[in-house]
Design goal:
126 residues; 8 strands; alpha+beta; 2 helices
Length: 126
């Protein structure tokens, strides 16, 4: 199992709780506010849910739709400059929105970084 040189993307990633902070919108800096989000990777986008149970009452309320991040043309990189936390990745979308994702568990964030980056790289050309 597992292709040469990298994460095995033939198995879809299940959702995971990661720490998330949006730090810019359209290139304009925003005040950082870390929250925990349930992160789901789609074919060319990321979804941020408040909770893992998508059918729960809170997620069905109007206005509680997941935040959707378009990964087409996005860059995904490790960053040490944008936070004092360890294991932080930065996603910069084509539209200039910037997100930080972080987990204290390195294997978890590393696996998600690889998968998100491969999704972004693959979807930008197609
Ligand atoms: C921010 C808060 C963040 C911190 C950020 C602070 O303060 O402490 O946790 O980011 O640092 O500005 P506040 O809650 O008053 O907005 P990190 O945890 O990622 O370091 P920053 O301004 O250097 O980004």
């Amino acid at each position: 199992i597992g292709g040469p040189g990298g994460a095995d993307l033939s198995v879809p990633l299940q959702g995971v709780y990661l720490n998330k902070a949006k730090i810019a919108e359209g290139g304009k800096k925003q005040r950082k506010n870390w929250t925990s989000a349930w992160v789901v990777l789609g074919s060319d986008h990321l979804l941020f849910y408040k909770e893992s149970k998508q059918e729960t009452v809170v997620n069905l309320k109007p206005g509680n739709r997941p935040d959707e991040v378009d990964l087409r043309g996005a860059s995904v990189e490790w960053t040490k400059d944008k936070s004092s936390r360890k294991h932080v990745i930065q996603i910069t979308t084509y539209a200039g929105d910037e997100y930080l994702l972080q987990s204290d568990d390195f294997p978890t964030i590393s696996k998600w970084r690889d998968a998100i980056k491969q999704t972004a790289d693959r979807s930008c050309s197609g």
